[in-house]
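Summary for the lay section of the report: proteins are chains of building blocks that fold into shapes. Here we show the chain for Serine/threonine-protein phosphatase 5 and then a coded description of the shape we predicted for it.
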Amino acid sequence: MPTMATEKSSVSLAEEIKIQANEAFKANKFSQAIDLYTQAIEINGENAVYWANRALAHTKLEEYGSAIQDASKAVEIDPKYSKGYYRRGAAYLAMGKFKDALKDFQQVKRISPNDPDASKKLKECEKAVMKLKFEEAISVPTSEQHSVAESIDYRTIDVEPQYTGARIEGDVVTLDFVKKMMDDFKNQKCLHKRYAFQIVLQTREILMALPSLVDINVPNEKHFTVCGDVHGQFFDLINIFELNGLPSDENPYLFNGDFVDRGSFSLEVILTLFAFKCMSPSAIHLARGNHESKSMNKIYGFEGEVRSKLSDKFVELFAEVFCYLPLAHVINHKIFVVHGGLFSTDGVKLSDIRAIDRFCEPPEEGLMCEILWSDPQPNPGRGPSKRGVGLSFGGDVTKRFLKDNNLDLVVRSHEVKDEGYEIEHDGKLITVFSAPNYCDQMGNKGAFIRFEAPTMEPKIVTFSAVPHPDVKPMAYASNFLRMFS
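The coded shape description reads as follows.
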């Protein structure tokens, strides 16, 4: 039986570890902070503060499912601990679960009625829920929705004489145009709406014709580059092209989803990628990520950015075109590339992925959801998702999927990695993430992978963030989310 002295020393040790965890958190070392808070919890699991602090660290790593679990434990230990409800509410907000968030902020207000910060957050949350209810009330059933693209004729839009930016002559997007447009973007100049419409509409036509799973052939002696999340970091995208060359038929790329949101140059990123797609469809391949969706764009900044730089009509148009992005690619019949990961059941074949009707907003379950949201885990089998959507899958799941489909490797993105990449599952799975110093705070490197045929051995190139104009990440995100970031 432990003595009072040993109990006291355990409590002291847990507190010391918590202080170390807090220091790691302040240094933006969130994974390290989680490990330390976990040690403190293992010593003294009845301290609500440790659980709430770990919840906040999970939130910083976008592990909202884990954050909700930890915050729930905090309020179970101490039902009057307002920070527990606050952390859980913030995680619900980040997932777009406004009604759940509202309940938690109402509880914070009940516990701390004179806290001005709690009152402010509650008001923002109430506004968000009211807006959501209004949008639900006026929404048109999917069966009755019309294509916004079909109502736009960019040829009728006049270009003012004083416009000095990049111009598309006729219907053909040329390399000269794309270079001029990128230079304009570097100088924070906007592209004229006429040409922005033209690029997005032409990209739509190209994407519509593609299957949900696209096969890519890399001839012998030729190479192919796969990039991960870019997340609106336009100046880092330009750096990738400076390091590895512009996209062309001889230098093709695949960008593996999450082009937009969080970074505040998302419009510049998506127009650049789409313009290269128009210039040469085989020079650049684009996969859908979980952030190419209305719900994410509403919260994480792309919708606000497009409204600010272009117009409401473009918000609708991008939402429509994102639904046409393919969900997965197979390179040389051997490498499976997907944004998130694998599936909740064994036996999924490539033919099942080809058969997905992708022309919709991502559902909350099923193959399409799992493709966009799942993450690998070190343990075998399957587990709940850290994010609260999709699942976690082990190396045995990866090996069975590869064997069932006669493939060699899974390449996926979706997660920040300190070195820009991580090799897992006995070398059978590589995560690649191409947004260095993510959100101007994570301190991570970015990476891309080059494959050369016929061996198709992955060669990973890492790079650091480059300077960008003084526009903060999330500058266009929802008010209530910026309050928590």
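Put simply, here is one thing we learned. The first helix runs from residue 4 to 26.
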